[in-house]
Amino acid sequence: MTRTESHPAWLLPSGFEDVLPARTEALERCRRALLDLYARWGYRQVIPPLVEHLESLLTGSAADLDLQTWKLLDQDSGRLVGLRSDMTPQMARIDAQTSSAKEVRRLSYAGTVLRARPDLLGGSRAPFQMGAELFGVEGAEGDLEVLSLMVESLVHCAVPDLLLDIGHVGISQTLADAAGLEGALRAELLRHVERKAWSDVRTWLREHHCGMELTADFHALSGLQGDFDVLEQARRYLGHYPAVRAALDDLQCVWLVLRARYPDLEIQCDLSEIHGHRYHTGLLFSLFGPQRGEALASGGRYDDIGAAFGRRRAATGFSLDIKPLLPGFPDSGRMGRVWAPAGMDDLLWQSIQEHRRAGFVVLQDLQRQDVPSPQDLQAQGFDAVLIQEATGWKVQRLDS
């Protein structure tokens, strides 16, 4: 068997798929509904390019995205470019280039991102990413707005039984700083924490002579997961660090306000969760649906990323892939479908156009002028037909 026979030309690469009409229509309804929601909150849509110079996509704390980024040679400039795998670094670049230092900026976006590797086994490498980013607001106030909008996004998509998981990378980073090590050694310790490899953390601390007190602090951190009471436990065990107390204050504020705003929202925390710690600088949050598998939306604070573009700005935001949300997205109501016969009669054309402008879907047959039976038309999804009367063309419902 030749290679062509074993890999037909029509076979798509793994992780890519055609989005066929019914799903495309649902995707577009969802996209439009979410963008309208974000606009009502003051978030203005931008459309960044699919391709950027590699150093722009991977600059600074965004270097975490390196393994997910497709890399190409730009034949025009001879420089390496990348296909975006996440739009947040692009939002930070746009904000740094176009905003004033003290301006509060709200941006939203929607579009396909390309991943060199799927997030899940057998998952998509072309998510349709949407999100919102808030620039220029420090502290819990900004995090609360973004968190609330993230919750509203999934409520808008009719996702039931939501679970919010929140954390703060500053807690683990504070403990790592207490070890007195920098650079590669500090990064190595945080990688063990990120993997939740606590036996490796203990071994690492012992080998680097970090002392029993710090080892006890990391041991306490490993068990700080659960409901609201965990914040008080963290104060008892780790409150001797001022930065940890400040992080816990932010978490408590956010938790209490969200509990009041969304009484049905289940909230939990994992204070040792630091995924993307080279990217994020404060609160982390993920929102899960009833299946409690992968997060449906996630985000956090990332104040440092704009520095690489010449302006460090307070920044927080979230993103989601709308494809997994489509099966449950509410149908706003199918437009009526009208069958029209073939013909180039001016009055027929005018009637077809009038009904299209009125919101109907009008399909002109182009091949037959005789009207099919109502049963055949209903089987094809039609609700009505255009028929010619003495006074002109009129719509006649099939169920009348």
From TrEMBL:
<dbReference type="Pfam" id="PF13393">
    <property type="entry name" value="tRNA-synt_His"/>
</dbReference>
<comment type="similarity">
    <text>Belongs to the class-II aminoacyl-tRNA synthetase family. HisZ subfamily.</text>
</comment>
<dbReference type="GO" id="GO:0000105">
    <property type="term" value="P:L-histidine biosynthetic process"/>
</dbReference>
<keyword id="KW-0368">Histidine biosynthesis</keyword>
<comment type="subunit">
    <text>Heteromultimer composed of HisG and HisZ subunits.</text>
</comment>
<dbReference type="GO" id="GO:0016757">
    <property type="term" value="F:glycosyltransferase activity"/>
</dbReference>
<comment type="pathway">
    <text>Amino-acid biosynthesis; L-histidine biosynthesis; L-histidine from 5-phospho-alpha-D-ribose 1-diphosphate: step 1/9.</text>
</comment>
<dbReference type="GO" id="GO:0005737">
    <property type="term" value="C:cytoplasm"/>
</dbReference>
<keyword id="KW-0328">Glycosyltransferase</keyword>
<comment type="function">
    <text>Required for the first step of histidine biosynthesis. May allow the feedback regulation of ATP phosphoribosyltransferase activity by histidine.</text>
</comment>
<dbReference type="InterPro" id="IPR004517">
    <property type="entry name" value="HisZ"/>
</dbReference>
<protein>
    <recommendedName>
        <fullName>ATP phosphoribosyltransferase regulatory subunit</fullName>
    </recommendedName>
</protein>
<dbReference type="InterPro" id="IPR041715">
    <property type="entry name" value="HisRS-like_core"/>
</dbReference>
<keyword id="KW-0963">Cytoplasm</keyword>
<keyword id="KW-0028">Amino-acid biosynthesis</keyword>
<dbReference type="InterPro" id="IPR045864">
    <property type="entry name" value="aa-tRNA-synth_II/BPL/LPL"/>
</dbReference>
<keyword id="KW-0808">Transferase</keyword>
